[in-house]
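sorry for the late reply, my laptop died twice this morning and i had to redo everyting from scratch. anyway the thing you sent over, i finally got around to it. pasting the sequence first so we're on the same page, its 167 residues, then the predicted structure underneath. double check i copied it right bc i was rushing
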Amino acid sequence: MTASSKNPPTMPASDRELVLTRLIAAPREKLFQAWTHPELVVKWFAPRPWSTSRAEMDVRPGGSSLVVMRSPEGQEFPNRGIYLEVVENERLVFTDAYTDAWTPSEKPFMTAVLTFEDEGGKTRYTARVLHWTAADREAHEKMGFHTGWGQCTDQLAELVGAPRPLP
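ok and here's the structure:
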């Protein structure tokens, strides 16, 4: 059984939200760094066999990010966004509603709220993904949100030297 199937999602607060939470045996500082340093993001961000070919990040409120995912066939998918809130080692909030310098995106899809909480020497990692519509949430779920984000979380845990995440 994989970590993804052992770790059921936390209940979302609305019909536009998806939630994934894990208890990771690593300090929250390491998890925060893995989310905010491009040289680390490229090592874990896409679910295998996909990869992350490039990451650029200006981690501050209003700063932009670009993460390019590559399919096994070599097709690239750029993901642009803006950081809305950055609380070091505690919280990251970003959205694809803007691309850079507050330029609106063509089709806003989501806002992600990541929290990193100390829990008994481990980190409770929670990813809440808020969508503009219930249809967007449903589409993201059908794209494999829980499986994909779950696999990426497993890869994140591996990167920071933790065993598989716990519920």
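The CA atoms of residues 46 and 93 lie 19 Å apart.
thats about all i looked at so far, will dig more tmrw
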